# Entry
Amino acid sequence: MRFTSTRNKELNSSFLQAIMDCMPADGGLYVPEGNADLRRWILYTDEKTTFSSIAGALTSACINTEFSPIICETIATKAFSFEPVLKRLDENLFTLELWNGPTGSHRDFGVSYLASCLETILTLNGKRATLLDVTSGPHGSALSKVLKGKKRLKSVLLFPKGKVRGLEESDFVWNGGNIHPVEIDGDLDYCRALIQEIFSDRSLVQRFNLTASTTANIGRLLPQAFFYTFAFSRLKNKVSGDIYYALAPGNYSNLVAGLYSWRLSLPLSGFIVPTSGALGVDVQGYPIITDSLVALKDRPAANPSEPSNLERLEDFFTDYSAMIKSFIYPARVSQEETAKAAQELYKKYDIIADEESAQTYGAIKANKNLSDGSGDAVVLIQRDHPAYSLDFARKTLGERIAIPQKVQDALKPFDLKRPLSKSKEDLIKILEQVQ
# Structure
């Protein structure tokens, strides 16, 4: 499989280039080109097929022209000592929990896979690389876990002032670790602007061999397609009708990854999503991508620290324009409806849901006609442990959630006791030290 750009279809890139130099020079995002028919292999999977086996096989199918099946299996095996959990709630409704990694967040899957992929490739090529990202949440903790012991991959990780969290002393470069945390004298938007400024300077990207660990990097997004094949392997002997996946919008990476899994011939019937400011519905109830009102040439370059995968979504439906109306089922879900959905999940299924999962369940209820047939199924994707949504659970259910230690660790504040950084020049000096 080759990779092209959302803004330049003449671009023909390898997987290696797409994950190492993760932002195309044209300002777009890398996307896979072409399809693969894996139906025969997918139908062969079952409940005994591990997530790492699925990841290894799909990796090989996507990049078999560049790396051997043994290398692809190695990447997946090293990445995944954990896997999603599929649970049946009733005849038609299932949940897919993605919080079983080291920080209780869905990010663990993508970050772990990307780090394993990069370390393997860098070792083969005798090179080194630096991840440049910004976070104020559990992303930093996820990175610190997966980078432990890596020899060729380091991270320069920006935090807004007063928002350093989820790290330990042993993680730091100056203590022999792989993370160089940087506290910025500014807010999250200012940090993102600094990241954009660095990545916009192609000479700096090449000089420091920079890449990103957000879903702007196709190597972080690709493993999210594995969720759907894993779910199908557990569903195939339980359901005989249509299969729909319901998920929160987020930055649309899971939705895009789900569509990519369909292009690999995975049997599924569509995606149910709550609307957002960027993905809405018209008067007939069909999905609208509001960004599409602005031509690509008139948009700013994609920001590696704040990726919106809507551009990838637009790109997908350029080739499958008629399908957006019959493949994505958006629903407006109010705050009141979200609260009621959370209460129903709790009373009916004993599930304490985070706000995103509750809103998504509200969208399922609004589209209940899709799965009312015998043998049909809807899979509610739960991205993060509900402990990340404490206030919502307390307000809607009156319940206090026991916070797992891994979530506490991911959110624990840390005082760096180091001078604040302020500018691009400050970051360049740090990158020179880490190189």
